[in-house]
Each structure stands twice: as structure tokens, then as C-alpha cells.
Amino acid sequence: MSDGSDEQESGEPSDSGAETGTPDTKEVEEPSVETLREQVEEKYDFDNFGPDDMARMTPEEWDAAFDIETWITGTELLDRVEADVKQRVADREVFARLERLSNPERLIAYSDEGYAVVYKDGSVAGEGTVLRDVKPSVALCSMDEYDPPEMPEGTVLPDRPRSQRELGRSVTE
């Protein structure tokens, strides 16, 4: 009988402790959006925000920092991403070819190291270094505060540097 009373005594504090402890824990674990937004603004320099900063941000920080309702999507997003990535190719920051396709409208960047497909809703699919290089451009170009570069003139093709070995082979052939 004493076992039954022990269970009741141990069960009661445990139940009441769980009830009183749960709300306190939820408040600590889930800060308000405003609190999280303040923390994000202190942690990141949005005037010089770049791909490295984007890689460090958690999904919760993204949601707090960027108002999804103001994100740029559609054809305007594809235009901005195309201009940004083409400029990065011209500056030799990214090695990829770009093509604009329709049905559905999308932008494709590809190389021998991977590919990325950017859709009008801002979603990105792909693999490899091209995906890694294109994702930050999509995130930046979807923000109204970001001014992408002007679209480079003509076709922008990535240059593949010729090594001395390749040069030697072509000279001997």
C-alpha cells in the first residue's frame, strides 16, 4: 500500500511540475519575432551582407529578418538574378553558362561542376558548386533593398584558364 501512496505522491509533483515548467520553457525557447529580429540586426551587418552571412543564418533568423510579403518574385526576380549571375561570371566569381527557358519560365546556370535551376517563385534546385554560387544571388535579388548590377552587354561566357600543360600540348600538336 505504501507503494501506491508513493506513486501518488511522486506522480502529483511530477504532473504539477510539468504543468508549471512547460510554459516557462516555451517562453525561453521561442523568443518573439521582434526579439529575434533585434538579435539578427545586431549580429549581422546588412549594409555589407553577403553570401557568407547568408550561409550562417538559421531559418528562424531568415524569417525574422526578412518580411516574406515584400520579397521580389516572378519575371522580375529572374531578370535580377540573371543580371547578377552574369556579372559574377564576367567578374570571374562564378564559372557557369546561363540560359533563360520558358514553360515554365526559369533560369538555368550550369557547368561541368553542377547546375542550378531558378524558378519564378524563388525556389532553386540543383547540385554542385553552381548551386552553391547561385543560391546567394537568388536570396539577395529577392530583396527590394538589394540593387543588382546592370545586365552585362552581349553573351557572357566563362573563361577557362589554360594551364601550361594544355598550352604545351596544343603547341606540339
Automatic annotation (TrEMBL):
Ranges of Polar residues composition bias in the record: 13-23
Biased composition (Acidic residues): 1-12
Region of interest: Disordered: 1-56, 143-173
Boundaries of every DUF7319 domain copy: 57-160
Annotated Pfam families: DUF7319
Top-level taxon of origin: Archaea
Compositionally skewed regions (Basic and acidic residues) per UniProt: 24-46, 159-173
Residue runs in coiled coils: none
Protein name: DUF7319 domain-containing protein
